[in-house]
């Protein structure tokens, strides 16, 4: 987050306008993860997709790889746990070096307790919603979270088409964040690219995961800069950001 501490009003504006880009290493070369992390050094976070072949039909990596990656890069790790029993496993990802840990509400037995445990261990707590999961039942939980992730594909694989039917949910979530005056980040994940990021930013997202759009580009670092510029230009015109 970029802020201007000397001027509270400008700090607020900077917070509203800032867009964060989180490249997903799911689309990177897993045999060269340290190099792939370096290739996107200007990114705000590195998005690490953990899949257990139960919550989603795919298998990626676990705690030991996150530990190694945390040692190999200065970019903070944003771990997205697409796993069963996150109540049991999520705290271990904080200990492994993740600065933000996202669990899926569909898999969590006690999301409030889990969010508090993640925060108590020193990481940002984040909760994810699958495409079929509405935000409305979770309005009262929002103050417990540092970030809410709205999936814009069914989780499990990179390179899927963006589900624009999720845009109304992004809008409604942004309205809830404003209504409660929360500084909650709103992340979107799945199919985010140069052709979809503006619709996400206009609807109210401010943290953007991009896998294939970054690692599929000839120059991944330039792709990050270009996506950020697009998102920030859209946010500057968006009604949700201008209302403040
Ligand atoms: C999908 C993962 C995403 C994935 C996004 O289940 O959670 O983070 O890497 O990849 P793209 O940006 O290619 O859709
Ligand atoms: Zn993800």
TrEMBL record:
GO biological process, one term: pentose-phosphate shunt
Cofactor requirements of the protein: Co(2+); a divalent metal cation; Mn(2+); Zn(2+)
Cofactor note: Binds 1 divalent metal cation per subunit.
Keyword Isomerase set for record: yes
PROSITE patterns according to UniProt: RIBUL_P_3_EPIMER_1, RIBUL_P_3_EPIMER_2
Protein name as it appears in the record: Ribulose-phosphate 3-epimerase
Pfam families: Ribul_P_3_epim
HAMAP family referenced in this protein's UniProt entry, alphabetically: RPE
Residues annotated to bind substrate: 24, 80, 156-159, 189-191, 211-212
EC assignment: 5.1.3.1
Enzyme class: isomerase
UniProt similarity note: Belongs to the ribulose-phosphate 3-epimerase family.
Active site, per annotation: 49 (proton acceptor), 189 (proton donor)
PANTHER family reported in the protein's UniProt record: RIBULOSE-5-PHOSPHATE-3-EPIMERASE (PTHR11749)
Highest taxon, organism lineage: Bacteria
Function: Catalyzes the reversible epimerization of D-ribulose 5-phosphate to D-xylulose 5-phosphate.
Pathway: Carbohydrate degradation
Record bears the keyword Hydrolase: no
GO cellular component, as recorded: cytoplasm
Binding site residues for a divalent metal cation: 47, 49, 80, 189
One Gene Ontology MF term: metal ion binding
Catalytic activity: D-ribulose 5-phosphate = D-xylulose 5-phosphate
Keywords for this protein: Carbohydrate metabolism, Cobalt, Isomerase, Manganese, Metal-binding, Zinc
């Amino acid at each position: 987050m970029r802020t201007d501490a000397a001027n509270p009003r400008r700090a607020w504006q900077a917070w509203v306008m800032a867009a964060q880009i989180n490249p997903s290493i799911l689309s990177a070369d897993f045999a060269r993860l340290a190099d792939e992390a370096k290739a996107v050094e200007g990114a705000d976070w590195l998005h690490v997709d953990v899949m257990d072949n139960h919550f989603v039909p795919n298998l990626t990596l676990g705690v030991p790889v996150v530990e190694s990656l945390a040692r190999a890069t200065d970019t903070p790790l944003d771990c997205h746990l697409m796993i069963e029993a996150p109540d049991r496993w999520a705290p271990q990802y904080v200990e492994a070096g993740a600065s933000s840990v996202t669990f899926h509400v569909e898999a969590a037995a006690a999301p409030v307790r889990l969010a508090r445990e993640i925060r108590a261990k020193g990481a940002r707590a984040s909760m994810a919603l699958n495409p079929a999961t509405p935000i409305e039942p979770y309005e009262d939980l929002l103050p417990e979270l540092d970030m809410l992730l709205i999936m814009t594909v069914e989780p499990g694989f990179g390179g899927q088409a963006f589900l624009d039917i999720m845009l109304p949910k992004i809008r409604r979530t942004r309205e809830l964040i404003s209504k409660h005056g929360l500084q909650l980040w709103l992340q979107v994940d799945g199919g985010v690219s140069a052709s979809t990021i503006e619709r996400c930013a206009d609807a109210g997202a401010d943290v953007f995961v991009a896998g294939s759009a970054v690692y599929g580009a000839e120059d991944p670092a330039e792709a990050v800069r270009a996506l950020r510029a697009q998102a920030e230009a859209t946010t500057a015109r968006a009604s949700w950001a201008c209302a403040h």
